Amino acid sequence: MASVNSLHRPDYTAWASNPAPAAPAEASSPKQNGGAKEPASGKTKKKKVKTNIVYSQPADTGTGVNVNTQLLYAVSHLKSNPGPMRLQDIAIITNTPLDTDRVLLEKFRSHDRIEYNPKNETYSYKHDYTFNNKAALLTEIQKHTRHGGGLSIRSLKESWKEATQAVEELEQEGEVYVTRTQKDGQPRMVFWNEVKSSQEGEGRPVEKEFQDLWRSLTVPEEPDLIRQLASEGLQATAAESLAPRGAATKKKGKKNAPRQRQARITNVHLKGQIDLSRDYVPQGK
Questions:
Q1: Nearby residues of 137 by Cβ (< 8 Å), 6 or more positions away
Q2: Residue in 66, 67, 94 with CA at minimum distance from that of residue 78
Q3: Is 176 helix (H, G, I), strand (E, B) or coil?
Q4: Integer Cα distance of 235 and 182 in angstroms
Q5: Does 130 score more than 50 pLDDT?
Q6: DSSP secondary-structure letter at 269?
Q7: Helix (H, G, I), strand (E, B), or coil: what is residue 248?
Q8: What CATH number does the domain located at 134-192 have?
């Protein structure tokens, strides 16, 4: 066994002072470059530009050359514009010869929805209603409800673009009733709420005279009720009886022709001359 003095620690100073040379940097792989490969040729593929053209619909090529078509364009633009407009402005915006075509101008002025102001020579669209605020809208709804009808939300919106929002605010305030469509819940008609309640569940009290009259009425017994109805020439309604279903019958239609059985074909002309049940043997053998 070697002595303790013979044991010594290896000297690593030479290795630490002279490290191994670094490996040469590897060429960048295609993965590091995103895997993109350069095309062999200098040509690059052009991407197809997507267009939003719907070829099944005819393109809007303008106001056309027909007088009635040009009149429709001019009236529709004036309807969507809230204020009055000059004739030259309408002609430029709608691209119609309103200021040069006399026939078109006469039809435009004689239109029942066009209002002409000779003082400043402007034209405006005549809407069904002339309100432009919530208070005037409520007054219009009250006037129509007193005559036994409501107002269409569509007609109100055509007269004032913010009418729908104003109607919803009036509905939240309890001033109007609004009927809506079943499909998407859009407002359809609006009515004035004549009976308002200060708190939920409260309303206008019924007059005492009517209450006393209502309580004084008694419902007669069934035999007496039928007798009173008969004396007035009336008849008690009977419960609707369901009609009995008839027996299931076959649908009338073309009758299928009966299938014909295939007849057994036999050689009738050979009957009595040759026995077909035996093998044929020629004569002389």
A1: 131, 156, 160, 163, 166, 167, 170
A2: 94
A3: strand
A4: 37
A5: yes
A6: G
A7: coil
A8: 1.10.10
**Is the CB of residue 190 less than 8 Å from the CB of residue 151?**
yes
DSSP state of 278: S
Q: What is the mean pLDDT of the chain?
A: 75
The length of the chain, given as a count of residues: 285
- Give the single-character DSSP code of 55: T
pLDDT digits (tens, 9 = 90+) for 141-158: 888 888 878 888 888 888
The predicted structure's pLDDT at residue 209: 92
Mean predicted confidence (pLDDT) in 45-53: 61
Angle of helix 87-94 versus helix 67-80 axis, rounded to 10: 110
**How far is CA 164 from each of CA 62, 145, 175, rounded to the nearest angstrom?**
32, 18, 14
Is there a common fold for 67-125 and 134-192? yes
CATH number for the region 67-125 comes to 1.10.10
Could you identify the residue written with the tokens 């007035």?
A: 232
Q: What band does 197 get if pLDDT is binned at 50, 70 and 90? A: low
CA distance readout (Å), 106 to 73, 87, 110, 228: 15, 12, 6, 70
Strand, coil or helix: 187 = strand
Provide the 3-class DSSP secondary structure of residue 115: strand
pLDDT above 60 for 58? no
Spatial neighbors of 18 by CB under 8 A, at least 6 apart, are none
Band the pLDDT of 30: cuts 50, 70, 90.
very low
Closest CA to 167 of 143, 196, 195, 136: 136
What global pTM score does this model have?
0.42
Residue 90 has pLDDT above 60, yes or no: yes
- Domain residue extents for the chain: 67-125, 134-192
Closest CA relative to residue 155, chosen from 137, 171, 168, 173: 137
